[in-house]
Amino acid sequence: MNGFVGVNTVETAEQLEALINTVLGSDRVYFLRWPHKVSGLCHSLPEGFPSPEGQVFDGDRELRWKVQGLGYSVLMLSTTELAKGFDSVGAAWEACDRPAHIYPSTETRFPQGIADRGINIEQRYFLDKKTAVVHFVALVAKQKKGNDNT
């Protein structure tokens, strides 16, 4: 499938939140990062938004942000059309989905308390079509199939 990689800059937290609401669907997943903690995967906007870094994703797109100067630098990884206000990065991208697994909450490599909260994710690789080099790996929210009681 074809991919799109784009960048944008917003000046305020309110503009960042408005951009998220404009670009992503309602079934979105947040993951916020601070120097001393992470939010874990959340369906609703976590307390303390905006964080210095974070990402939000749904089944089609992932937005990542990072504080840059007095505003936020925003990266979009998508398999759908170019979003208004984003400048394209690179010429041609290919995207392919791969399975992903969330480590159990007992895993010692991650902060205590990170749980999947019933969120099913996959990874989406963004490859440069000319070189086949993977430049970005995005998270994708997937619907759980069947009667999954986990």
Structure commentary:
With 150 residues, the protein is mainly beta. It has one domain. The protein is 7% helix and 41% strand. The protein contains one helix and nine strands; from the N terminus they run E-H-E-E-E-E-E-E-E-E. Strand 3 (53-57) and strand 4 (61-68) form a beta hairpin. The protein is globular and about 40 Å long. The two termini are 30 Å apart. The model is unreliable at 146-150 (pLDDT under 50).
Indicate the structural class. mainly beta
Helical amount among residues, as a percent range? under 10%
Percentage beta strand:
35-45%
Mean pLDDT: 84
**Rg (C-alpha, Å):** 16 Å
The DSSP helix count reads 1
* Largest sheet, strands/sense/barrel: 9 strands, antiparallel
Tell me the layout of helices and strands:
Elements: E1 2-10, H1 13-23, E2 29-33, E3 53-57, E4 61-68, E5 71-78, E6 87-88, E7 93-99, E8 120-128, E9 134-142
Antiparallel strand pairs: 1-5, 1-6, 1-7, 2-3, 3-4, 4-5, 7-8, 8-9
Précis, in short:
The protein is mainly β and 150 residues long. The protein has one helix and nine strands. It has one domain.
Keywords:
single chain; 150 residues; mainly beta; nine-stranded antiparallel sheet; 1 helix; 7% helix; 41% strand; globular; disordered C terminus
